[in-house]
Design brief:
It contains eleven helices and nine strands. The protein binds adenosine-5'-[phenylalaninyl-phosphate].
């Protein structure tokens, strides 16, 4: 019987080695270990042996069975891996190719000109020690008006026509709403900028949109004066335009600054000769600013006898228009990708 077992083992190992696929390997398994398999029959006949012989042969038969099973397992995994590699070789796709029926790759997106200029301005100010703050687009009356020294029924509320929500809140009309939120977060001395989208319920024309972008800036320290304000404004414009641009400063009224100014830039669309963007005046309102009103500092929990500051609200869309010679602000929201792809 021992010889028979050795013969079954040798023959089976040979067959396993010769199996070219999983199907023929399974045939080998059934032929030896199946219900009528050669080894199964031997195992069944063990009971006919004398007791002392039965123990020895039983052990041998089990060893043979184990060897055959191990060899079957090894061959199964080798054939499976080979099958997968074969499949990969036959059935692969190049994901970088064009989709069937197309000849061009889809155009890749790029940063919108407003975002790009916003990031540039953030870099300019962070390099001057400013930190960047954020605020919500849907605001409360408190942060947008009251905390900025514009109480209910104050005529200055009419300067910025407002989109109100049904629950008495509003879409912020200016990034100045970030000022008092900022003062609640950082303590003086501080320098902050807050870029964001703002909304006004107004008729659009070449230089007015109902949805546009501003960058608010605020610096609070001891003894801040108008000359600090002018220094930072000039620095900003020099960095943006990479040259000295003609500006003018005139008095401007905003309840949250005192004194307040309008900083205008010589219209770079027409060179100052007059066009629809500058309303034929040769100047574009770009950067209202001023020294922070004591009541606003108080709203932010800051003592105006100890601290003073300046603030400004830059109109981002108009700045981009000046930089690239864009003659109508409505292009920004037109949804025409030909406009955006120029930048
Ligand atoms: C304000 O919004 C003030 N919060 C700015 C400010 C901040 C003053 C801090 C003092 C201190 P104004 O409404 O002028 O001010 O708007 C600021 C800038 O946003 C304008 O100079 C202009 O560049 C831009 N802007 C205003 N209205 C529109 C509009 N409808 N469309 C496009 N840009 C606009």
């Amino acid at each position: 019987m021992e010889e028979k077992l050795n013969a079954i083992l040798a023959e089976t190992l040979e067959k396993i080695k010769g199996s070219a696929d999983l199907k023929s390997l399974d045939d080998v398994r059934v032929g030896v270990l199946g219900r009528k398999g050669s080894l199964t029959l031997v195992l069944r006949s063990l009971g006919e042996l004398a007791p002392e012989e039965r123990g020895r042969m039983g052990k041998k038969a089990n060893e043979v069975k184990k060897q055959i099973e191990t060899s079957l397992d090894e061959r199964t995994s080798a054939l499976s891996e080979a099958g997968i590699s074969e499949l990969l070789k036959k059935d692969w796709i190049d994901v970088t190719l064009n989709a069937p029926g197309t000849t061009r790759r889809p155009a890749a997106g790029h940063i919108h000109p407003i975002s790009r200029l916003q990031y540039e301005i953030e870099d300019i100010f962070t390099s001057m020690g400013f930190q960047i703050l954020d605020g919500p687009e849907a605001e409360t009356e408190h942060y947008n008006f009251e905390a900025l020294n514009i109480p209910k029924h104050h005529p200055a509320r009419d300067m910025q026509d407002t989109f109100w929500t049904e629950d008495g809140n509003l879409l912020r009309t200016h990034t100045s709403a970030i000022q008092v939120r900022g003062m609640e977060k950082v303590r003086p001395p501080f320098r902050v900028v807050g870029p964001g989208r703002v909304f006004r319920y107004e008729t659009t024309d070449a230089s007015h949109e109902n949805t546009f972008y501003q960058v608010e800036g605020m610096m609070v320290d001891r003894d801040i004066s108008v000359s600090n304000l002018i220094f930072f404004m000039k620095q900003l414009l020099r960095e943006i335009f990479k040259k000295d641009v003609k500006i003018r400063l005139r008095p401007g009224f905003f309840p949250f600054v005192e004194p307040g100014f309008e900083l205008d830039i010589n219209c770079l669309i027409c060179g100052g000769s007059g066009c629809p963007v500058c309303k034929q005046s040769g100047w574009v309102e770009l950067l209202p600013c001023g020294l922070v009103h004591p009541n606003v500092l108080r709203s932010g929990g800051i003592d105006p006898d100890e601290w003073s500051g300046f603030a400004f609200g830059l109109g981002l869309n108009r700045l981009i228009m000046m930089r690239y010679g864009i003659n109508d602000i409505r292009h920004f929201l037109s949804g025409d990708v030909r406009f955006v792809y120029q930048f």
